[in-house]
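Pasting two entries for a bug report.
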Amino acid sequence: MSDGRLPRRRRWIGWTVGLVLTLLLVAVGWVAIRGIGAVSDLQRVASGASQLKKAIAEGDLEGAAPVARSIASHAESAHALTSDPVWHAFGVLPWLGPNFRAVSEVAEIADDVAADALTPLLDVAADFDLASLGFAGGTIDLAPFAQIEKPLGTASAALTSAEQRARRIDAESTLPPLAEAVGELRSSVTEAATVVGSLHGASVLLPTMLGGEGPRDYVLAMQNNAELRSSGGIIGSIALLHVENGSISLQTQASSRDFPPLDEPLPVSESTTALFEDRPGRYLQNLTSIPDFSEAGPTIAARWIGRFGGTVDGVIAVDAVVAEHLLAATGDLAFGPFTATADTVTSILLSEIYATIPDPVVQDQVFAQAASGLFAAALTGGDPKKLIGALAESAGEGRIRIWSAHEDEQAVLAASALGGIIPEDGPAATFVGVLMNDTTGAKMDYYTRASIVTAVGTCDGAPTTRVEVTWTNTAPADAAASLPLYVTGGGAYGVPAGSVGTLIAVYGPDGATPSRIDRDGSEEGVQTAMLGDRSVVQHDVVLAPGESTTITVEFQGEGAGAEFTETLTTPLIEAAEMSHEELRCGS
């Protein structure tokens, strides 16, 4: 007879299942409780980061210190809550796993940034005004830079590492709210890494570049975006700056008319010649067609020395939109018959001046007045913090490029956005780009607009990167008659008055090759070239008023299809609309 008990083996199985279920319930409860705590901590980290940014910007270091301590405490707590073996075990589960891993990675990054970047930054800020870089009365005090370079380097390295790790988080496999949070983390860390990296670069470069070890002379090339070139626009005016012990003064001023075309062009690279023939080496105005400023800079210096003699320690190129940012810091500026505000200066410099002053020689005189007035205002007027902020905003938009004749300084510049070179592709990002160069021979690019869409993925089994450029001429329908001859060009270079002629060059990732090239859905003849290991496809486009065209180039092979693909482009008067979309093969 049975005593009603289950066989021993069945009882053992039942106990085992029960124990596993109990442990599973305990584990779920464990990670749920810890997850709620971690999310709460991370929300406080995000809130504290906003408060800290505001406090440092306002110079409120007394208020910043407790906020930083709170951030560090909550970041450390979030990291601890999401780094135990149970949490990591849930990270290997299908579907749910990526969410657990993402929270853990976000917490770890926040903890590392708080520990390795915040502390040195606050130490620096306690002794040095990072917002103004010690700028006052037209002079930058160079003495403190030696003390702040090392802690800024530590913070910059920590933030750069955090940026790379944030990019590697698999956000696409997470729930939408978490994916959005990861995106915000990436943006915040990238912004911080860029700002602190720039500050560190400044601490390395400024003591010598601003004449701390002897006087320096720099050529300042001012670009006019109404006639586009790769790095912004033609060189309309040019000057020599003298710096010594942190003090800056404006010396010789000249215009492009002082530099007649050369009978024997200066040597330029094969890639530049393939895209633009020998025009950059022959004409000063075309030197900024050169895509790489490490090539353009020394060539601009050579033209200056050939005309005025002397030595040049470096070249700085700025475009007209920089004036807009500077006037927001310095206030209104009077020059010639104009009084410009931050809202009107771009329109005056790139459009109204041609309608008001038809004589090109007088135009050059007024441009020189504007340049010297703006320079004087930047050195002696306005809030130093706002001035540094205006320059930082301009640099972030790619509107300032610098080359140094001193190798150690140039190595630092080349690794930053200020160097104006095409960055190397790497684990952190892959780069593609679009260059615009005017062929109208006039100032019609005041009316041009661009939108650029990139998409990455796999098509026909091959990694693919697609770049789509839409280019539009917004000039009035009667532009040929209503706009000044100096603006339309009057057809002098084969482009009908009122139309816009543009060379649009699209380059792809390192090692990839074009697999599809079309304009408005049809194939047409194009120029091809190489920028290092990058393939370049260049269309020659002419658009009548109101017309628009779309150029599509797909690159396949090595380097293509990278998830983190960034797009670089010529700085326009109105910044190009940039977006990413899902890759649809065959579309």
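Entry 2 (this is the one that rendered wrong in the viewer):
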Amino acid sequence: MWEALDAVDWRALEPVGPDHPATDVPKVLRRIARADATTRPEAVERAYADLQDLLWSPGRFTDVGTAALPFLVDLALDPDTIRRPDLVDLLTCLVCDGEDGGRGDGGGEADSAPAAAWRRQWPRIRRLLDDGDPVVRRTALRLIADRTGPLLERWQEERELPVRVALLLALGRAAADEDRTESTNAEVRAVLDGLLHGENPVLRVASVIAAAPLDPRAALRALPMLLEILADPALAPEFGKVWYTLDREVPYERNDVAACVVELLELDMTVATSFVAGLAETGSRIGDAELRRCALDEAWRLLVARPSVEAAVLPLAAGLLADPDDDVRYQAAHLMAVLGHRAAPHADRLAALLDDPGESTFFEGRIGDHARWALTRIGDPRALPGLVERLVAPYRDVQGHGFFPGEPRQPDVADVLRPLRAYAGVLLPAVREALRDEVSRAGWLVEDLRKVLHAWGENPLLPGEPAPYPQPWEPPLPEPAQAEATVLAFAAGGQWHWTFPPALDALTHHGTLTPPVREALTALGAADRRLSEYGDYRAVLQDEEIRARIDRLLALP
């Protein structure tokens, strides 16, 4: 190998980039070949990162990659090479950019140097699919992930469950995407059907998910079986041992698999919410807090995307307000707050949580804070004592709060207080005191509190402040024709744009609707999707506000 490596004129090869000279390739290959169990992990990590930088340029296959290919294969096939799956990953990245990948089944340019190189090496590369290391075999499946025939061949040979699960999921996607013969199609369906009625519960679930690209309603028909297996506490650890996919190095846990099932069930939201409720009910009955958290995670994901699930999510969340697990109570209280007036029948149960100090493992705030917010959304005055103090306290030592879009989180102060204008007489002293404190220390909430006062029709300035308060910027109202075009485009399935709310305001100001716009607004009002740009609690708040505007518009002549 090393004589052949030295025989290559690396200086003559085009590098991936100016900072990655081709002459470094043999040096890095030698570093990887010399590494063993005593080599520092960070040194091995650096060597593989350097190799990828030297050989891989997304979207194209370079001369240096073509020249290095046989040496990569040598190292990948050598059982003494450290972290061989990383080499297989790099080979996969290269094959994706190597036109046909040289796998001998057509589709590339016949005279392409990269394709020819791959054709020469493919008989050796395919030996990785039979490697003695199951991790190498599973990683090597990515080389044939888009080919139904080779995947079926591997299925007949493979016996390791972590590899079989990943193989099966890839087979379903490949069969749906690839042009295939009727006999191949029948063979794939026979494999999936046989597993669906087989003895291994994990493979039964995998067969349903693998079948979804071919048969989107497969999960709907398998609902009782899926719920029985995924809610079985004895089986829960098994998913975390064997549920690998080709795009992840770590396995999915049981809750991750359940989330995949819920996504498949969204063809019928009644079935999807029934499945989520079943997870919650079973989790409560058998004392499985992880399963209850999973149910609330999925209820939350559905709620911020679809208005139709509100009625089903309400009893689920209300039933978990007294749960012994802090994370469960936190999520349940947050869901109740987002549900707003729908949660009014459960106001007493929320009031009982006002002093709950429990916290989530992952999210900021206390359970009592979310219960208090829920009561403000309902309009229950029991939320008012101490409300402003609780809202501003977390910001005294921290300038702002981080969060990931789409996750449950503490509401912004202005989002809680602005709708409470009817209680301004009670809350005003506390808001002004909080503003005074924020101004004195140049705090994070100065503008938020001024906006609240402005929304209440109060003076946003403190006594003695000389500067006039700059009015919050409002986008200009478009002309009626432009407003109509914006509404029609959004109703036709266009992406969210900040001009949509001003377009609604412009039409309201104009005072009449044309028939096409009325029809578009009627369709939007009936749509089972959030009319919002957000992915967290604001999706529901903004959706409520926009739907109220649409209702007012539809009342126009």
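Dev reply: Rendering is fixed now. As a check, the viewer should reflect this: The first helix runs from residue 2 to 7.
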